[in-house]
Specification:
heterodimer; A: ABC transporter involved in vitamin B12 uptake, BtuC; two-stranded antiparallel sheet; 14 helices; 4 strands; 76% helix; B: mainly alpha; ABC transporter involved in vitamin B12 uptake, BtuC; 2 strands; 3% strand; globular
Chain lengths: 315, 339
């Protein structure tokens, strides 16, 4: 049984327990609501999967969310039309991602350091734009975007997530680019000598990461209807937790997007189930932390048990 | 100049460059801000550096072994709250006992990280990401949404941050700064001259080779996490003494700040090279910039973080580009002659 199988069993278990615990769990409103509440994080988790598979990391995603949201608020406040501002914010995301990629692929600094610096830097730029105010200037159509259902019970943000999910699965599993992501993650040297354009793949990944983070920031401000400098603070850790819990190796090259989808569901259902049984948010975070550590230990425990078993029954 | 520099080890050059940078920053702001260079600047910066430097030293120990500890912020918060709580319930606790209590609680938490990393073989970034959330949850549960208030704390603790060892006019050498200096000297000597210290470097530069050479790799990694936790505990105590009012958000973001100080200080994030002195200078540089930018009226204080991010990038980039060349040059000059 692979890691995905194990996650599936855990997921089914959580669904069973949740449905027994609370009648509200399986209702459509609750299901949609629990996705809407974390849609920004799970959108970014998709691209983060690519980046961690590539043996890199992007800690600056949440700050880019904040920067895009602040830039949006600032531009709309100073008279730009909202749709133009959205386009410009997406460009900011691309440029920010390219900036990260420059330091990583050309100056050849570790991505942990570069994106840590930009975690501080992007957040700082956002603060420069709107300082410590809270901006609430958006036209009604933009605020409706975040909440109003447009297809059945699903709001736009969920639809965007579903489309991106399909694109991510197709690219990672069925295209040459997806194979490159894995090969680079397994061994960058081998990839280089096999003629894979490593720098180009990494640049694309970080630029898309910036773009998606900016998109998530825009969706977040649409959902909240206002913009503040500390939006999305600390989200990067939740996002990375989701990806790692999905069985993606922090050293790159191993794991699959299906595992990440399952772990997203596990995290959301677990949090929702705990909320329904009145467990506070802080305990929920602690539980997720423990599960993250346990999930990384299970393969080790398994191989340890196997070695004991082998010794006992060796011919 | 080049001739003199080539006599100095590359690691020392890095520290000299940092020292120079700190001087440049001071000169720059002294020209920009009227009445910048005064005793209050030294007093304020040295006190706030004391907190971050002690934490950065702990982080250095872990980073040297090619690991990372993202849970230090939560450890600082927990110990600060825990000790504060104990002291407000019982004002009779001796100062020394309170310090030891903070260090002990921190070491316990660091040891927990260390066991998971060293013996259960879980990557450090995963373990400490998990325990960052876990320790914070413990704090929230333990505190029961209460706050440690200054009014309940014993008088000696409130006086502690303003306790001076030496005074020259209005220039004060605070006791907390002396604690920091003691920690710096102790660990710098420890890493430089003890066999344990050298083993930390060996494990960081090549874990496999260290293992094959028969080093007790697991135990050493465990001890490095334990020490990091203990120093984070000490930081928690200093934090409590400085701020007095402790809520459940105490120390949030310290983990990234400490990593930033370590990286600016020239410690390789992939382990194996760097020094305690460097990390301390990194902490000083960052703190000095933060404290100075706030007072610089030309630009809004909100530029602080944006500039800080850029500073970290450029300082690491300089390190990777120039230090590589300097090291090659040094290696060539000091290579054993082949004749």
């Amino acid at each position: 049984m692979g890691w995905e199988g194990f996650l599936l069993v855990v997921l089914l278990l959580i669904i069973c327990v949740n449905s027994f615990n609370s009648l509200a769990f399986l209702t459509v409103e609750n299901q949609v609501n629990l996705f809407v509440l974390s849609v920004e994080k799970i959108i970014i988790a998709l691209i983060m999967t690519f980046i961690i598979l590539n043996a890199e990391i992007d800690l600056s995603v949440a700050s880019m969310m904040g920067l895009a949201a602040c830039a949006l608020g600032w531009m709309v406040e100073s008279g730009t039309s909202t749709s133009t501002a959205i386009g410009l914010c997406l460009i900011i995301g691309l440029v920010g991602g390219a900036f990260n990629a420059y330091w990583i692929t050309i100056v050849k600094l570790p991505s942990l350091v570069v994106t840590l610096a930009m975690l501080i830097g992007f957040r700082g730029l956002g603060r420069v734009l709107i300082e410590d105010r809270s901006i609430r200037v958006f036209p009604p159509w933009f605020e409706n975007l975040g909440q109003q259902p447009i297809l059945g019970p699903l709001p736009l943000s969920i639809l965007i997530f579903l489309v991106l999910l399909v694109i991510a699965v197709v690219i990672l599993q069925y295209t040459g680019f997806g194979r490159y992501v894995y090969v680079i993650g397994i061994s960058q040297e081998v990839a280089t000598y096999s003629g894979v354009r490593v720098a180009r793949v990494k640049t694309i990944l970080f630029m898309v990461s910036g773009l998606i983070s900016a998109l998530a920031g825009i969706l977040f401000s649409a959902r909240l209807g206002s913009v503040r400098g500390d939006m999305g603070l600390g989200f990067e850790l939740d996002i990375i937790t989701m990806v790692l819990l999905g069985g993606v190796s922090i050293f790159g090259g191993a794991g699959s997007i299906y595992g990440v989808i399952l772990s997203i569901l596990i995290v959301l259902y677990l949090r929702n189930g705990m909320s329904l049984s009145n467990v506070t948010g802080h305990i929920q975070t602690g539980v997720i932390g423990v599960i993250l550590i346990l999930s990384a230990m299970i393969p080790n425990i398994k191989s340890w048990l196997e070695s004991i078993f082998d010794k006992k029954y060796a011919p | 100049m080049v001739k003199y520099l080539s006599q100095v080890r590359p690691e020392k050059q890095r520290e000299l460059v940092l020292l120079l940078l700190i001087l440049l920053v001071v000169i720059f702001f002294a020209m920009m801000i009227p009445n910048y260079l005064n005793a209050r600047l030294f007093n304020r910066v040295s006190t706030s550096v004391a907190i971050m430097a002690v934490l950065a030293i702990g982080q250095t120990l872990v980073v040297l072994t090619r690991n990372i500890d993202l849970s230090v912020g939560s450890i600082v918060g927990f110990t600060a709250y825990f000790v504060g709580q104990q002291l407000s319930h019982n004002n009779e606790i001796e100062p020394m006992v309170a310090v030891l209590m903070a260090i002990g609680v921190g070491a316990l938490m660091g040891g927990f990280n260390g066991i998971l990393v060293a013996y259960c073989r879980v990557p450090a970034i995963i373990v400490t990401l998990g325990t960052m959330a876990l320790f914070r949850t413990l704090l929230v549960e333990y505190s029961d949404a209460q706050t440690v208030l200054t009014v309940n704390l014993p008088q000696w603790l409130l006086d502690f941050p303003r306790l001076n060892v030496l005074s020259h006019g209005r220039l004060h050498l605070r006791f907390v700064v002396v604690i920091m200096l003691a920690v710096v000297v102790l660990f710098q000597l420890f890493l430089r001259f003890s066999s344990f210290g050298r083993k930390l470097y060996a494990i960081g530069s090549n874990p496999e080779a260290a293992n094959n050479a028969g080093f007790p790799t697991q135990r050493i990694v465990l001890i490095s996490f334990l020490l990091c936790g203990a120093l984070a505990g000490l930081t928690g105590f200093l934090f409590l003494a400085r701020f007095g009012n402790i809520t459940v958000v105490a120390g949030i973001g310290f983990e990234l700040k400490s990593v930033a100080a370590v990286v600016v200080g020239g410690v390789n994030i992939f382990g194996g090279s760097g020094s305690i002195l460097g990390a301390t200078l990194g902490a000083i540089l960052i703190d000095l910039l933060e404290n100075s930018l706030i007072r610089w009226l030309q630009i809004s204080e909100f530029w602080r973080d944006a500039l800080l991010g850029l500073l970290i990038l450029t300082s690491v980039a300089t390190d990777s580009i120039f230090m590589k060349r300097i090291r090659l040059y040094w290696a060539k000059r000091h290579a054993p002659s082949t004749s």
